[in-house]
Amino acid sequence: MRKPRSTVMPTSNLSTMLGMGVVLLFAIGGLVDPVRGQRTPTISYITQEQIKDIGGTVELECSVLYASDYSVHWVKTSSDRSDPVFLSTGSSLVLKDSRFSLRYDLSSTSYTLQIKDIQETDAGIYQCQVVLSVTNKISAEVALNVRRPPIISDNSTQSLVVSEGQPAQMECYASGYPVPQITWRRENNAILPTGKFLRMEK
Question: What sequence ranges are listed for the domain Ig-like (predicted)?
Answer without folding.
Answer: 41-139, 149-202
